[in-house]
Amino acid sequence: MRVSHLANIEGLLFVSGDQGISLSELSRLTGLMKSAVKEQLDKLATKYVNDTNSSLQLIQYDDFWQLVTKKELASLIKNYFENPNSRKLSAAALETLAIIAYKQPTTRLEIDTIRGVQSSGSLQKLIALNLVGESGRLNAPGRPILYKTTIQFLNYFGLNGLKELPVIDENQDFNLDPGQLFLTNFNEKLQEDEE
After folding, report:
1. pTM assigned to the model
2. Rounded CA gap, 97 and 69, in Å?
């Protein structure tokens, strides 16, 4: 089955997450001229505006495009993050948190590379729970956001500082299972949350 140009662009927008993706990058990755990509982006934006069954909208800032939820869902999403049941951390969120804790400051791309999957959702939840925050921007193309843990992270896990994180062997392959490095030493806290 052949995927349309519109579907290719939509897929790239999805995986680019909260950082968005530039018109130039979309053009390079799809092999389309910038004008053709812009035309597809306009079609996609119109599609989202007209589709009342879709929660998404397409926004542009500078030369970057990003998929976001529609403004009408703001209170619903806020309620989700304020709900005590949403405060439980999934395995994906814990893996993301472990990577940030050990590699901070780090970018979403580095987190995605280590995990092998896209981490935008987990990262947004961790930010909403104030376990992770921005630490500036990397001086590289696109100026990606750098993420670090917060004081709330230390409080949540009962740590006095990052030096109390479980020590890992620097020769150990960090890609093995970063979530396990974190989970092994904090199972007690996780069990408390479930009660």
Report:
1. 0.52
2. 23
